[in-house]
Amino acid sequence: MSFFRYSPPIWGKYGHVQTLMYGLRGRFGYIKQFTEDRRSVVAVDGSTVYYNMFHPDDHTTDQHYTHIMLVCPGIGSHSGARYLQSLVQHATGHGYCVAIMNHVGALGCTLTGNRIFSYGGTGDLALTYEQLKKEFPGCKFIGVGYSLGANILLKFLAERPERQDDFACAISICQGYDPVRALLAFKAGWKSFYNIGITKGVLDMIGRHHHQLFPRDTPLVDRTRHSFLRKFTNLISGLTFILSSNSQAMSDDTPSPVDRDYEQLITSHDCNGFSLDQSSCEPVNMEGFCKAQIIQQLDEHYTRRVMGFRSVRELYKWSSCAVLLQKIRSLPVLLVNARDDPVVMESLLSIPADYTKLNHNAIFLCTEHGGHLGFFEGGLIIPDTTSWIDRLVVDYTKAVLQYSN
């Protein structure tokens, strides 16, 4: 198939600008309101996984879909995000049903378990997939993943290859493929700016659910208050951290002698990353947790401890889809990245390039511009609501379905 050229707005030729506009606006213009169709399924650990269904305008209540677009959002995101709503608007306008899995903890709903989402956890996506299979037997899925969600999607497809039989194709957008390598560069210089923003989002989520995640008598800094003073203080501390030439609080990048190999990690942790041996879990370092500014610090003082990993590196190794990619051998896969993505360093792009040599149905598409999940287009200054990525997802899906038929 041939791809249409990506032509960004004037300001869209700068990856930082595209990424910041995505973070601040999501998408421009009007996005229609969709009828709420939120469904849920309960995991074995008691956690409730919510997913939202979005139907084409001409659908009927008893309609049986032959294809459903199953979307896994970016880190800590949910179906209400504007970048997902613009995809929904475009895809449903072309007759597709869209199902978006909401990361556990991302919605305002009270947690029914004692966890939030994890970076490489595939259990919640698996539950959503299994539930949709029951509701729409014989249906084929179009998997779409954004950033961290793309890592989860490909890991989900690779860890049990039989799942690929239920998918027509998979689309990965702006993921970093290997968290171990990606996060080495994600805490240096101005990349720390994005690291701090992501960390604040995860900390706020944990703060909203601290009664479910911590013992009742645990003192916890209120991370959910958004006063001007707090925002200003966070900005100053973040800039100070970025400009600092020596950050001793960062986690060590060298492998620990006690780190386990990938096979050991897979067999000792469940599909959401939690240790099968509860005695391996450690108490949270509350002082370090409350002072965390970057994701590595948060993961050292909180995440790896509650999940039972010996080091942050172990956590990232377990979370990565890169080790398993070779198990997706014939499914049509589209991997999309931008060279000016300030979140994903360019050296990581060798992973999807090498993968296309193993899967003759895989395409690696790398644009010069687009930033991280930006890909705005149309207009000199104010871009269109529909992004280039929205159009690409629908057009690629159409081509795959037409070819398979």
Low-pLDDT stretches: 223-228, 245-253
Overall geometry: globular
Number of E-type strands = 8
Strands of the widest sheet, in order across it, are 1-2-4-3-5-6-7-8
| H-E order | HEEEHEHEHEHHHHHHHHEHEH
Give the N-terminus to C-terminus distance in angstroms: 15 Å
Biggest beta-sheet profile: 8 strands, mixed
The share of residues in extended strands comes to 5-15%
Radius of gyration in whole Å, from Cα? 21 Å
SS summary, helix count: 14
Q: Which class do the helix and strand fractions yield?
A: alpha/beta
Q: How much helix is in the residues?
A: 25-40%
The mean pLDDT is 88
List the SSEs and their pairings:
Layout: H1 15-25, E1 38-42, E2 48-54, E3 67-72, H2 82-93, E4 97-101, H3 123-135, E5 140-146, H4 148-159, E6 167-173, H5 179-185, H6 191-208, H7 210-213, H8 228-243, H9 262-268, H10 286-291, H11 295-307, H12 312-319, E7 333-338, H13 350-355, E8 362-367, H14 388-404
Parallel strand pairs: 3-4, 3-5, 5-6, 6-7, 7-8
Antiparallel strand pairs: 1-2, 2-4
Helix pairs in contact: 2-14, 6-8
